[in-house]
Each structure stands twice: as C-alpha cells, then as structure tokens.
Design goal:
By secondary structure, the chain is α+β, with helices and mostly antiparallel strands. It is 43% helix and 24% strand. It is built from 17 helices and 18 strands. The strands form three sheets. It has an eight-stranded antiparallel β-sheet with strand order 14-15-13-12-16-17-11-18. The protein has a five-stranded antiparallel β-sheet with strand order 2-1-5-4-3, with helices on both faces. Helix 2 packs antiparallel against helix 4 and helix 4 packs parallel to helix 9. The chain starts with 14 loop residues before the first helix and ends with a helix. Keywords: Transcription, Transcription regulation. InterPro entries: BAT_GAF/HTH-assoc, GAF, GAF-like_dom_sf, HTH_bacterioopsin.
Length: 576
C-alpha cells in the first residue's frame, strides 16, 4: 500500500521504437523515390537506399542476369565513415547469395567468426531475396546484429524494392511492347505501300523506283538503292536510288570478283542470294572501301537484300538505317520483300516480252558444269570462246571454238584425250588466237539451247565458270526457259536479263544491209551468177563461162564469188 504522498517511477526504454520509426520514415522516403524510377536506376540505388534505412555498415545488390544465368554483385555501399571496397567478399558469401536466391528464403549469419577472412571487417550478414531480380545483402562489423526486428526490417526493405522493381519492369515491358507495335505498324504500312506500287507498276524501272522511294520516305530507313551485277566490269552498278545523292553511288566500287571473309556484303548478297547484315558500318571490316562516305550521309547499319525469284537473280536492294544494330526482327520481313520485288520484276518482264515486239536476252552462269568445253578449259588452263555449232543427222555435231594466248598443240592434245570429242582439227592460228573444229558426241550446252529454240549470243568457258548469253525463244516465258536450262544444268543461275527490240527488217532494209556488207564487185558477180543459173543443178552457166563474159580470170571470179558467199553466210548465221 502506498500513502498519498508516495509515488512510483517507471523508466521505459523506447530506443528500439524510435529507431523503427526513423527506419520506417526512411523507407517511405525511399518508396517515393523509387516510384517513378526505371529498373537500371533502382539497381544502382538499392545498396545506398538500403544502407540509409537499416543502420548497418555495409549493403550490396546481387543482380541476376537472365541471359547468362549468372548472379553477380552489381552495386555495393558502405556507411559514411567506411569504404565499400574494404569489405572484400570471399567465395563463401557467393554461395550464401546463390542459396538465398534459389531457395527464396532469408539467410542469416550472425557469428561468422573469421569466415570472412582477415581482410574483411564483417562479422554478421543477412541475405534477403528480391524475387527474380536477385538478392540484397546487409553486413555488420558486429556479431549478432541481425535480430528478429532487424531481419523483419530488412525483409520489408527488400519487399519494397522488389515491388518497385516489378512495377518499373512492367512499365518498361509495356513501353517496349507499345514501341514494337508502333514499329510493326510502320513496317506493315511500308510493306503495304510497296506492294501497292508493285501491283500498279508496268515496268521494271517503275518497280525499282517505287521501292527505293517508299523505303527512303519511311521513318525506318535513311536511304536505299538497287543495283545489279555488271558481268563486263565485275562490279555492282546502281539502277535506282532515293534518299541519297548520286555522288555517293559514283564513289562506290563494289567488286563481285573478290570473295572471302572481307567480301563486300552487297556483292555477297548477289553471289550467295542470302540476306547480308552490316550491324555497324563504323567497325565492320567489310565496309572499309565505303565506310567514310556512308557515315558522312548519316547511315550506321546496312542490310543487303538479294532480289531473287525462282532461281532468277534481279540484283540487290541495299537499305541503310541511322543507328547501329538494325532490328533483327525486320530481317525476315525484308528477305520476303526482296522475293516479292523479284517476283514482280519477273512478271512485268515476262509480260513485256509476250506483248511487245522485243527479245529477252538472258545471261546464265554455270558452276561445276560438265559440258564438253569445261574439262577442256580446265585441262588446258585457258578461256574458251564458243564460235558455232552445226548438228549432224547421226546425233554428233561440229563444234567450233577459239582460245587465246595458249599453245594450240596443248589444246589439241587435251581435246583428243576427252571421250566426248571424236575428232578435233586446228583451223587457223595467229599469234594470239587459235580456232578449232571438233566433232563431239552427245549433247552440249549450245545444242540444248538450240534444241529448245534459243539462240546462243555468246558462250565463254573457264575452269570454274561457264557464262552464256541466250536470246529467249519466242512463245515461251523466262521462267519456263530457265527451268528448261536448270533441268539439265542444276547449278545454272540467271544473273542478268535484258529486253531489247527485235529488228524488223523490210526488203529495203535487206538491200541496205547487203550494200553495206558486199562490195560492188562482189554483189555484181553474185547477181550475175544467180540469174545465169550458176547455182542450178546441173549448172546452166559454169564459172569459166561467167569469167569470160565478165572479162576476168576464173580465179578472180571464184575469189569474189566465195567472198560474197562468206559475207552472206555471216549475215544469216551470225544473226540467227
């Protein structure tokens, strides 16, 4: 019992409560700071924020990389009077961090007792998981620092960080999805625009111009151009461009003859018919010849798209973007666009051939061919030029060909070793050229072309490649004729296609051509021989009769007659 004048005094230690209130205030401040922050800022700030809330000497974020599967220390911080670098982390800590991450449970070490090593002052630690983001760790230089209250506060800090991180990551993913949808909308609108122009186009030139203009006008690309391989120069030459000056294209010198690791990507697209990507023009060694002029025009990456349809190549489309690392998601779409463009070109060229008075000239390249001239070129180590073919009724044919700068005897010796050549003769030889006639058995490339209605304009054979230029036969499509060639020569690639007007010759045209090809004396003798019955069987007039009538020697008559006949044959066979 206490008297009225007596009192009892109670002393309550509220230090822990005050510390908790301060910590919660700091946690609320940290939550407000993180609410509008992106994931990278959160990752960078976690350690310092955690250290400010929980009154310990050390804090660190161990971040999980979902691409590599690694969990590594991302950021660390120490109290104001400490240095984070002084808290070295031995391998044991890494093990504890990993175990915490995979178990998603808090791990406490309150009496490390020297496990941290002499170089680290830490004597107690707690590791708290941050979901899929990683682990946050706290360290103290004292043992038994992490009691139940401190661990709960550490968990609250981690939960706050994880929530903010999830929100920021969700917003970032939503933003990326929106950007992707916008990008796809722009790309789809671009493709639709290109397709509409392809449908409306009536010529190859119109198609190519529309394609480059649509691409250059798009926000996705800086500029674009279309080029084709020029077999004569062995380079890629431009046909149409947009978004860039023609001076840029004049400065490009893209060889199609060089292969290897530093092969020009634009030439490689034509050769391999595979899409070629230059992620960064500034560092890709393949772009060295045109790097500076390309960077000067604001381009940082390039995509070379082959224009190929049904094994017919119509060149390459080069598209440039303003940033390095072009979006890989566009590559499949652009490759398909290249095929669509090539299909459209094929269609208008075929239509033009069928509806106009023109002829289509096709150039094929055949690799690993087995035609009779290929092994001869390989064995003789020379280039062989086809001159003509005269088929025989027994299936054989007289094949005429020429070589340059090679010993004629060596060619004859090699030709006689080939089982497909029954007989070979040297017709004439000069200092630089030799012309041969060979009797060949079986089919040849030239005979295959002729049998299918084509006309061989030129045919050149080397040890590696056969290049043939053919006038497409009337009444057939390019596609059908290409398939006809490739059915026998599977490695044949259509590398060029040109249309030109057919020469429509009237009687007056023929008279003009004859007057240009024949001398007055040759034409006089031919006409007299014709009207005198010299070419009848039996002859009405002989050569002696006509030479006497013309008051010239018979040898002179025969010379002019043969020369006139030769020039008429040239007129007929060289153009047919």
């Amino acid at each position: 019992m206490l008297n009225d004048n007596e009192k009892v005094e109670f002393v309550i230690d509220i230090t822990d409560r005050k510390e908790s209130e301060v910590a919660l205030e700091r946690l609320n401040d940290a939550s407000r700071e993180l609410i509008d922050t992106n994931t990278e800022t959160i990752a960078d700030r976690v350690a310092s924020l955690a250290l400010a809330i929980l009154d310990v000497e050390y804090a660190a974020l161990w971040r999980y990389d979902d691409r590599s599967g690694d969990l590594e220390e991302h950021a660390a911080d120490a109290a104001a009077d400490g240095d984070a670098d002084a808290f070295s982390v031995p391998s044991e800590v890494s093990d504890w961090v990993w175990q915490t991450f995979i178990d998603t449970d808090v791990h406490v070490e309150n009496d490390i007792d020297g496990q941290m090593g002499e170089s680290s002052p830490l004597r107690s630690c707690v590791f708290v998981p941050l979901g899929r983001h990683g682990v946050v760790s706290f360290g103290s230089t004292q043992v038994d620092t992490f009691d139940e209250r401190t661990v709960e506060l550490a968990e609250t800090i981690a939960a706050t960080v994880e929530t903010a991180w999830d929100r920021a990551q969700g917003e970032q993913q939503l933003s990326e999805r929106n950007e992707e949808l916008e990008r796809l909308d722009r790309l789809n609108a671009l493709i639709r625009g290109v397709h509409q122009h392809l449908v409306d186009a009536d010529s190859r030139e119109t198609i190519e111009q529309a394609v480059v203009e649509q691409l250059a006008d798009s926000a996705l690309y800086e500029f674009a151009w279309i080029g084709t391989r020029d077999p004569g120069t062995g380079t890629v030459t431009s046909r149409e461009w947009a978004g860039v000056d023609d001076g840029y294209l004049d400065m490009l010198s893209i060889s199609t003859e060089r292969t290897g690791p530093n092969e020009d990507p634009i030439a490689a697209a034509i050769r391999t018919t595979d899409l070629q990507v230059v992620a960064d023009v500034a560092i890709d060694p393949r772009t060295a010849p045109w790097r500076e002029v390309t960077l000067d025009r604001g381009a940082r990456s390039c995509i070379a798209i082959p224009l190929r349809y049904n094994r017919s190549t119509y060149g390459v489309l080069a598209v440039y973007t303003s940033s390095p690392q072009s979006d890989e998601r566009d590559h499949a779409v652009l490759k398909e666009l290249g095929e669509t463009i090539a299909h459209a070109i094929d269609a208008v060229e075929t239509k033009r051939t069928l509806l106009s008075d023109s002829v289509t000239e096709l150039m094929f390249e055949i690799h690993d061919g087995d035609d009779v001239l290929t092994p001869l070129a390989r064995a003789s180590d020379c280039e062989i030029t086809f001159d003509g073919l005269v088929p025989q009724h027994d299936g054989a044919a007289h094949l005429f060909f020429a070589t340059e700068d090679v010993n004629a005897k060596e060619v004859l010796d090699e030709a006689r070793r080939l089982p497909s050549i029954a007989e070979v003769t040297l017709l004439r030889e000069t200092e630089t050229e030799s012309v041969f006639e060979a009797t060949v058995t079986g089919s040849t490339l030239a005979s295959h072309v002729i049998e299918n209605g084509g006309l061989v304009r030129s045919l050149t054979v080397t040890a590696e490649t056969t290049t043939v230029v053919i006038d497409q036969p009337a009444g057939t499509t390019v596609r059908k004729f290409v398939e006809t060639i490739q059915s026998v020569y599977p490695s044949a690639d259509l590398v060029a296609r040109h249309s030109r007007d057919r020469p429509i010759r009237t009687r007056e045209d023929m008279r003009t051509i004859l007057s240009e090809r024949l001398t007055a004396r040759q034409r006089e003798i031919l006409e007299i021989a014709y009207w005198s019955g010299y070419f009848e069987s039996p002859r009405v007039q002989t050569g002696r009769d006509l030479s006497e009538a013309l008051d010239i020697t018979q040898s002179t008559f025969s010379h002019h007659l043969r020369e006139g006949e030769r020039r008429l044959c040239e007129l007929i066979f060289d153009s047919a």
